[in-house]
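User: two proteins, same treatment. go.

Assistant:
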Amino acid sequence: MAQVTAALVKQLREMTDSPMMECKKALVEADGDIEKAVDILRTMGVAKAVKRAGRDTNEGTIATYVSDDAKVGAILELTCETDFVGTNPKFTGFAAELAQVVATSDPADVEALKACPMNGATVGDELTEMIHVIGENMKIARFQRVSAADGALGGYIHLGGKLADLVAFKLSDDAFAASAEFKAFAHDVAMQVAAAAPVAARRDDVPADVIDHELAIYKAQAAESGKPEAIQERMAQGRLEKYFKENVLTEQEFVKDGSLTISQLAQKVSKTLGGQVEVMSFVRYTFGDAE
């Protein structure tokens, strides 16, 4: 009898998106022949998953989860074949459950997530079951766990799950997280992230290569003016400042009130709460942008 290795079991699982134990049983029965094992899996009731495993999944949704204490959260993109399924409450509810598993289990990658416990089984088993129930191929495209140990998280979902984000805030008092003022502020900032697509939360977080690239363009533009080098430098720096104001979250004008920047809005809510509220970071997903 041929030896059924872990690598062979993994290969069959990737081919069929079937549960690990079922793959192992099929390979044992097929004496290690992977093609025969596929046929055995089809007769064992996972034929739908096998048939659909190669289908394109260009539709789907983005789900978020934030824990009750707002300290831990996750954002996850789940894909399917059609927009009809992508907006199905069963599908979107499953995506939300997966985001919660990411937050609580902190898996390293998609394969690790599939091995995480869920509803008395594993995520991989539940995913296969959903493929059976709904009748379309599905894939976990990407996910990220987010934490705010010194503060709280806020989130926003837009366009029926096609755009979503989580924002981390630092709070001088954990009690602020439960206040109506902070919740409204966190929602507004998360909405700002969705609408204005900033490149970073704070100026110091803008990657150096992005700054160098922008500055090089502005210097080249300034050189076209024919003005003295000192003036060209000031022109380039001025345009870089404008870039920061347009693309750094805390420096952007608040979309609901252009008289305030997000930083000034944070100062306003800080004064109301009698402490300090700071915007620290964010994660923003647009559906279909997974690498």
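Protein 2:
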Amino acid sequence: MNKSFALKKFKIDKLRLKASKNDLISAGEKQADEISVSDLGTYKPVKRDIVQMVKAEEDNMIPELLPMRHERMMKNAFTFFRGTAGVMEYDLHHGMQSDIPVMICGDAHLNNFGFFASPERQLLFGLNDFDETGVGHWESDLKRLLVSVQLIGELNGYDEDESNKILSKTAKAYEDGINYANDLSLTDRFYLSYNIDDLLKYVSDDDQMVKVLKKISDRALKNNSDKVVKKFTTEEDGKIVFIENPPRARRVPKETYDDLLKAFDEYRENVSTDIQVFLSNFKVSDIIRYSVGVGSFGTRCYLALLTGKDDSHLVLQIKEALPSKYDLINLSSDEAIKQGYEEGRRVIAGQSILQTFYDPFLGYTKTASRSYYVRQFRDMKDSIDATKLDKESFAAYSTLCAFILAVAHYQSPTAPMIYGYLNKSKKFSKNMAIWAEDYSKQVHQDFDDFAKYLRGE
């Protein structure tokens, strides 16, 4: 096992190297000699207790929501995989790693790519979940993406040979993305984004993908605060309020409500001046706890209904920023809360770097004991259900995500080291595919073991 450093100790300063691009490429090539791609592609099971690891993550969550969280997680091996990012990160830490740091998503499975709005109201595509973001090993993101491809492929009924081919193509697409990004100038890469028209051109020869993208384009444009207000609120005593639907949607105690109002005031001081001025037109008219997702289901997550001077509405999500799931495995509840105090900044940093064009309302805040980040709720956000794609479209979608992941990684100044590493490595795609296939078997074993625990066996 490579122990030259612990990922937990990575800081943004790790990315600010004074070396030239050529020096970084050479360093990556040398790293390929020290840590071969065959070593990186070999999975060795780690001795650990999956039940205790999941319980450690859940110690920081709302007990009332855990039964529903387990119900969501235990639908199949992929949903279990979604809910256990910290477990995989633990396994990666105890295996061979590249020692090449970049800003990573930390949870780059297929369902964490999707559509979102640019400030100019274009529909863009890219990574869209950053709860686990941080400075880490580039291959951690790729491996998580590949395992998700394998697990969804199994749900779609692909045989071993079909899945292996898709995995290899996906890994090759990551390599292609690194090569593509390496050839771009710094400014071209910084401003790069993928809008719906770019994607339609990319998949123009795939009739199903074209149909899916056009459907999403039409649907995403309708996902806005007005639609949320219509679906999630009702009128009580002449006032629009959120509908309570326990346990997922529940009104909060007055003390929590008041704490969140103070946190919202601090959030407004942290956003850009134009957003500060815009938000001065609104007042918070209601707040409700509303749980979302799979991995983050059970954390403290709220919706804030803002009412404007013209009676229009804006809905913002105030989401708890806990330490990464990997850290939660190793921290007590009190330690997690203490460390989590500044975690909102980490999430914002990761999204700002990896997404390039991001929600203008993105910001962070805190209460007396917890850290949060704030964003628009469902504003032109949508995603592709990979379980409903045919094999050819699924392969195209998987390779698209891998390509975009590579370009996102290349926003880090250290990324030329990845280019050098891959340039020196042979059979990269084959080795990554093997690793994903082997690790997916571990996921199935963990899924079965946790299911037995829930059944009391």
